[in-house]
Amino acid sequence: MTECQFFLQSVNRKVSVAIRKSMSEMTALRESVKKAKKIAIIGGGFIGAEFADELSKASDVEVHLIEIMPKLLYNAFDDEFCDEIAQVLNKLGIKIHTSHSVFSIDGSNSAESVTLDNGENIPADMVLVSIGAKPAGKIAEEAGLRIVESGSIWVDDYMRTSEENIFAVGDCAVKRDFFTRKAAPVWLASTATAEARNAGTNIFGIRVLHQIQGTIAAFSTQIGGVSFASAGMTCRTSKKEGFRIVTATATAPDRHPGMLPGARELKVKLVFADRSGILLGGQISGGPSVGDLINVIALAVQKKVTVREMDMMQIATHPLLTSAPTVHPLVDAAHRALAIMRTNNK
Fold this sequence. Notes:
By secondary structure, the chain is α/β, with parallel strands linked by helices. It is built from nine helices and 15 strands. It has helices at 23-35, 46-55, 79-91, 138-142, 189-202, 235-241, 290-302, 307-311, 329-344; strands at residues 4-6, 12-13, 38-42, 62-67, 95-98, 102-107, 111-116, 121-123, 126-129, 133-135, 219-223, 226-232, 245-253, 265-273, 279-286. Helix 3 (79-91) links the parallel strand 4 and strand 5. It is globular and about 65 Å long.
């Protein structure tokens, strides 16, 4: 089972709002977008930011991106990466409205404007909604399966529901944080496929113990030609959960020497537990290599790799493919964090 449903909370809808997910409806939406001149996007997470990026490619469209949190992609990145994303979108002409919610979607027969909680009215002949989702567990509830407070279907470590012969994976199944085991609303295709492999392996009897210990929330995206990725804890989530951390950031060209054609700056930030030195998370921005490098960090988080192990990590490098081995930001960030730990322990 892999299903979720979308919702609008506390929004006064004076016109009907259609929530589309099927391919045919998305194709129709694409045609409608081509006719729009002023578009308001509600929600500045991954989907909202990616939509804004794509829509900005039409030179005659005015795009507004509205986010209730203080920064875009606030739950996935620390401030410096959120600010970098906002800068990229600003250069594309996107008008960003953070720390504001939508009071109403206004219009007669169709959307004409959006009113924010501060009274500001934004003209819009199309409104796109990307404010999250909630699990669609009605069929499971009717079948007598256990549903938790979030509306997700309860599952154990092997994706079994309260009825041991029924398995649930994907958006409808409860997600638990890798570090805290708290419920985590992280609905990703990559997480769903890992859960499916877990369920498939154990469906005829438990064969692999504790294959998935929780979601590490591994994300990647590309906005305005710049790649961004995150996995595990950020400084913000670490502070929220009471984790004592050491963090360090390193930058270097993603080719060497940096004057090579196509070279991009690669920035890596790593977050470690301050006493054990275990890697808790990482964030990256730069060129296309970001998409693969974040998976190295994701695996390191899951395997509880330490700062010393990362500092001594052996890596493959090539002038046309990677940063120089002497300044590779993944190793360099770990080295800098280790230096901070040594200073703190004196």
